[in-house]
Amino acid sequence: MSKPIEVRSHVSRDFLQNAAYFNTMPKVVWEYVSNSVDNAKPNQMVNVEVRISERRVVISDDASGMSRGQLADFFQMHGENVRRSRGERVRGRYGTGKCAAFGIADTLRVETYQNGILNSVELTRQDIERSRSGNPFTVKDIHVDKPTTQKDGTTILISGINVRNLDRPSTIAYVERHLGRQLTKHNVVINDHVCEYQEPVSYMERRFSPPTSIASTIGNLELVVKVSPTPLDKERAGIDILSFGNWHDTYSGDIETDLAKRVFGYVDMRALEEKADSEKIPPFDNTRNMTLNKSNPMVVTLLGWVDQCLHDVARELEREEKDRRATEEAKRLTRQARELAQILNDDFRRLRLELEKIRRATRLKQGDEIGDIVPGEGDIDTEYRLGGAEHGEGTRGDSSGPGEEDRPGPSLLEGSAKGGPSAVKERSQKRSTFEVDYRKEQEQSPRSHYEKEIWTIVMNLDHPQLVRAAQQGGIDGKAFREMSQEIAFVEYALALCNERLERDPFYESGDMMMDIRETINRVSRIA
């Protein structure tokens, strides 16, 4: 009788393949920090300290620690989480986290203390790769059941770092977002920064419960949707998908308005944990990309319902914004915003032309042709395409005379179109224009901000400085207008520096300060 065919795994390849999913510092640190939190003693806070340097990463905690036997279980790939097997609700599921260090480094050392006993081991990439046969490989013992006076806890030492970007700020943001509300129960410090759970400021909150037809699949739960008055960074925007308080994914839906950057909230779906083992298609993605499996029927139903709720909120906000802009005050603010935008765009146009003159003079000295290949007449492939409508007369009707503002002219956009050699013209240099907008964004929000994607400077009408200026003479008064100018000019100067910073890696802080001062002086004289 022939020998039965067995399913086997090449252990070293399997180990390193799983490690490849942990390809950034945030993912690695998050994995070990969350392990510390999962290993908390009953009803006790865990203190975790993380140190990230060019040479190594150290994660230390005062949790339960591990015995020799538990340490052996820790290095078992794809084993069931011990605490989960006891019915506890913890984040870990697949037992692959021990390989995380090898996504960014070459050596992992684990030192763990429990009940006055120290056990420590070390594993290197060389040890793993040496096991070419595919058989299990040995973890090197440093200390075995050594008596100690050290309190319970575990220290992870990761050395031989092989990534250039240590990404400390992103690591802090990643841990703060993913641990979320658990940070109110535990203490995590990364390079002397105390991680905190900080919910963004909101001015609207809506709560939704699924209809019976949907609740039969995802359970009776509540979706909380909040709207921030200002755009949020990617680590804070979106709806957190939780299960028994453990974070599993963040979803922003397919809304295309600016609501996608301002909406946040949460939904706690217990069925994800309760039914996970009985589902043919698992709801959790084990590739460490921290997302749910969108092939799972429960997940598809949940996200589809969340998307409907977000669209309901978007429609409500659109109606409110339409009503706001119809008011007389909004119309007056719009006129002021256009006047400010005109000053900024006149300056920006002149600035672009000056830079073009310098560029053309430099090319002429080098013997280059000074004609540009621009879209329009011709059959040569260009690197641009024309955007916008043709420039008009700025008039309305037969007898109305000049209009309130020029119509936007054509602008060069990134893309491709047919064209030919042409002298550089002012209108072909205009890639976009700045806009100014007034919004009510609550007192706690910043005085102003710049939305880069739409080239818009936003001023917060609820900020105390603008409120006081409006009280002194109304929105048409001198105090309000001068305050608006000062805010717009500062944001414009900062925006220009940020644009240059993205294009010039050698742009120094001293040059930036001089450019900010010069820009503010220049546009304020124009005003």
Features:
4 domains; 527 residues; globular; five-stranded mixed β-sheet; eight-stranded mixed β-sheet; 22% strand; 20 strands; alpha+beta; single chain; Heat Shock Protein 90
Q: Could you characterize what this model shows?
A:
The chain has 527 residues and is α+β, with helices and mostly antiparallel strands. The chain has four domains: 11-194, Heat Shock Protein 90 (2-Layer Sandwich); 204-324, no CATH class; 327-367 and 434-527, no CATH class; 371-388 and 409-433, no CATH class. It has helices at 11-19, 25-38, 68-74, 82-85, 125-130, 168-179, 212-218, 271-274, 297-325, 328-365, 426-429, 464-473, 478-503, 509-526, and strands at 47-52, 56-61, 107-114, 117-124, 140-147, 153-159, 187-190, 193-194, 204-208, 223-227, 238-243, 246-251, 263-268, 372-381, 384-387, 411-414, 418-422, 435-439, 448-451, 456-460. Strands 5-4-3-6-2-1-7-8 form an eight-stranded mixed beta sheet. A five-stranded mixed beta sheet has the order 9-10-13-11-12. The longest helix is centred in the middle third of the chain and has 38 residues, at 328-365. The termini are far apart.
- CATH architecture of the largest domain, by name, is 2-Layer Sandwich
Which of globular, elongated, flat, extended, rod-shaped describes the shape? globular
Estimated radius of gyration: 30 Å
Q: Report the sheet-strand fraction.
A: 15-25%
Spatial arrangement of strands, main beta sheet: 5-4-3-6-2-1-7-8
Q: What would CATH call the homologous superfamily of the largest domain?
A: Histidine kinase-like ATPase, C-terminal domain
The CATH topology annotation of the largest domain reads as Heat Shock Protein 90
| Strand tally | 20
